[in-house]
Design goal:
It holds the Pfam family DUF5648. This is DUF5648 domain-containing protein. It is a single chain. By secondary structure, the chain is α+β, with helices and mostly antiparallel strands. The protein has one domain. It is built from six helices and nine strands, in the order H-H-E-E-H-E-E-E-H-E-E-E-H-E-H. It has a three-stranded antiparallel β-sheet with strand order 2-1-3, covered by helices on one side. It starts with 13 loop residues before the first helix and ends in a 6-residue tail after the last helix. Bound molecules: 2-acetamido-2-deoxy-beta-D-glucopyranose (3 copies). One 2-acetamido-2-deoxy-beta-D-glucopyranose (NAG) binds next to strand 6.
């Protein structure tokens, strides 16, 4: 049974109309986050279809802004037998000069600051010799590692905690030995090679990140 509005003969009060227009402008602003650029002046408040909930609109509210993504660089510091991940050009240069480290490339694309649906990726540094770098989004696990004597290094960036917005898993691999080492990769080939040929143990998915190749295939905005 359909219910019809019973109060159409009443003139609408002025204040809610003003608030309604303001709210529509606000929602329109939110929907301009990325990929789709809405022109504010092109929408008259009465027929603003940007307020109609569609899958595209929900996605834009849920996802971070891909324009903010930065490369997460991967370094293999041979003197530390340790992999280091950082978004900082300065830190890449520092490690390559100080530790004769190898630059391995871009492991993933991550957000440099907090964005919708993201969580911090904590970086910790082992205090042993050789040292090691450990990354986790799990604050409980971070605190356990701190209690074992590791130190806070930095917050590397922000990543998704579930597989949304075209993200891919960031696999964690652990070389369990005195010269402990962690590898983080989006590549199943690299993951499987580390397990089968280099003695690493698979420790699950650290979080979900964007991949450089997503941009090349145009998958990001679909
Ligand atoms: C670079 O490394 C320093 C510690 O050596 C750290 O405090 C800083 O947050 C790092 N920068 C980035 C962007 O990760
Ligand atoms: C976080 O780490 C703790 C301790 O290692 C673990 O018990 C818990 O299951 C982890 N939580 C998630 C969501 O993985
Ligand atoms: C490590 O950093 C976290 C936040 O990033 C903070 O809550 C915690 O107190 C720090 N722990 C130590 C031992 O510095």
């Amino acid at each position: 049974m359909l219910l019809y509005p019973t109060c159409l003969h009443h003139p609408p009060p002025l204040l809610p109309v003003v608030i309604g227009i303001g709210m529509r402008a606000f929602i329109t602003a939110i929907f301009t986050v990325f990929c789709v650029v809405l022109s504010g002046s092109a929408h008259s408040p009465g027929i603003d279809e940007s307020t109609i909930p569609t899958l595209a609109h929900r996605t834009q509210e849920t996802c971070g802004d891909n324009a903010d993504l930065v490369p997460l660089f991967e370094i293999d510091a041979t003197s530390l037998t340790s992999h280091i991940y950082t978004t900082s050009n300065v830190n890449v240069s520092k490690y390559i000069i100080d530790d004769t480290a190898s630059f391995l490339g871009v492991a993933a694309l991550i957000f440099p600051f907090s964005e919708p649906s993201t969580v911090p990726l904590f970086a910790l540094r082992g205090t042993g010799t050789p040292s090691a770098y450990f990354y986790t989004t799990n604050a409980t696990e971070r605190d356990e590692v701190l209690a074992q004597g590791w130190q806070n290094w930095t917050t590397t960036g922000y990543i998704y905690s579930s597989q949304i917005c075209g993200s891919v898993p960031l696999y964690r691999l652990h070389y369990i030995a005195a010269n402990t080492d962690y590898i983080y990769t989006t590549s199943t080939a690299t993951r499987d090679d580390a397990i089968l040929n280099q003695g690493f143990t698979y420790e699950g998915i650290a979080g979900y990140v964007m991949q450089l190749s997503s941009f090349l295939t145009g998958a990001v905005c679909s």
